[in-house]
Prior knowledge:
Elements lengths: L5 H9 L8 E9 L8 E9 L4 E4 L4 E6 L8 E7 L10 H9 L3 E5 L17 H4 L1 H13 L8 E11 L1 H9 L21 H6 L12 E7 L19 E6 L8 H10 L5 E5 L13 H10 L13 H19 L3
Parallel strand pairs: 1-4, 5-6, 5-7, 7-8, 8-9, 9-10
Antiparallel strand pairs: 1-2, 2-6, 3-4
Helix pairs in contact: 1-9, 2-9, 4-5
Amino acid sequence: MKALKLAAFLAFAACTTFQQAHSAGLQFVEIPSDNRGPALTGAVWYPCNGKPEKVDIGFDYSLAVKDCPVSGKNRPLIVISHGVGGWIGNYHGLAEMLADNGFMVAAINHPRDSGQSKTRDPGDIAAMTQRPTDMKRLIDYFVGPGSHASQIDTARIGVFGFSRGGNTGLALIGGKPDWKLLLNNCPVYPGNRFCEQIKAGSVAEMENDDRIRAAVIVDPAGGSLFTADGLKNVAVPVQLWGSERGLDGLSPEDAASIDRNLPSKPDFHFVRNSNHFSFLPPCTAEFAKLVAASGDMELCSDEPGFDRSAFHKQFNADIVAFFSKHLSE
């Protein structure tokens, strides 16, 4: 795996404007419904002064200071897009580290395929095509009517996306998937209607957002659908992560094709001995019990010899270093 050593990162971060003595603040938000979609449930982590405590975020706890005032102004904003079945708290550890380093970090539950959504329909292709619009609405809220607008530097916005969220991130920075390529290998899981919808020509175009200045794309679902022509308009720095083993319908080719097809070489981290779910944080004991009861143990399982806890310490540090470099003042 191509990565900065943690000690090197800490030395780098100490020289940036983001490395300050912060705690992570945390607030829950709701983005109102409008003509672009339903209300969005979300959360924001940010720098603040206070003593962190465990805050319940659904399936886990975030170590943060709930509802404390934001410390400072002109903060860069990172928005997070989860994978299928994910939720706002999937990457709370990363969000806390980014907040500790001076960033504001906002995440939402995508209404069509979040694990906390009551309107889930991940087999409808709209669950893919609507996601970038969800993220644009999230950014619009935080730079507009949201209470944190005055603390955000709108010239420094980044996106992090995992799995289907990686596909979302690619679309936001100008990527256009060629959905017809999916017809060569149609998904077969129950309820999936993608191929029927593609054949019928009923696929909405995915929106992009020119406000985004840097992107971290992690094991993107459908990465192979983004050809060189489909990525020709991407002009922002990209940090790309790919698994060696795949799983859940993904293959190593999904990230490798993005690496080949981006017009500028990304900061590509090919993670040896990892599978797709290795990029999810280590499962808590409580969540592992839920996974065991469902029979889907892949979410918490890694290849022999892969240390997910150690990997995520480096993973988070490398992402903070990337955003610090490309979203500096």
